[in-house]
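HUMAN: Spend a minute on the protein record below and explain its fold to me.
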Amino acid sequence: MTNEHTPLSWFEACKKAAENYRAGRFELYPITHEAYWWGLGCVPPAIQKGGAFLCGEPYTHTIDEQGRERGVYAYAAELSEGKYYGGALLTIPQARALTGAELWAAIDAPILAAIIARRDGRALEAFCITRTHAKVIAAAKAGGIDGGELDEQLQAIS
């Protein structure tokens, strides 16, 4: 059993990535050191920049805004020494356009979603205290969290 703090294997991260892709969410989860290196080494990466890469074999394909077919790849990143994240599917243009703020929102999104689902006021208060208002809203947006539900729980802890 995993929670929002338990690093996932590569296969668990890919399962989460597929679920999130179908739901239109961009979320990242902690993955193990071994998972990161397995994803990087199983096939040559489609792209790699610093510690981030798209696994070289597309999960699926999509049509972009210009009508071009694009591969959709599993994304993983080492964002700080020993901190690995995965669980998202992106096209090459989407990966190249990612900002640091979007990455951190994607990391916070599943944590916030788990707190909201548990209706854990103390954890929600701690989450909000350690992040700016804009970061809380970005995490909610990245995770597809209903704004009304978030507002209701925030008001309960005020």
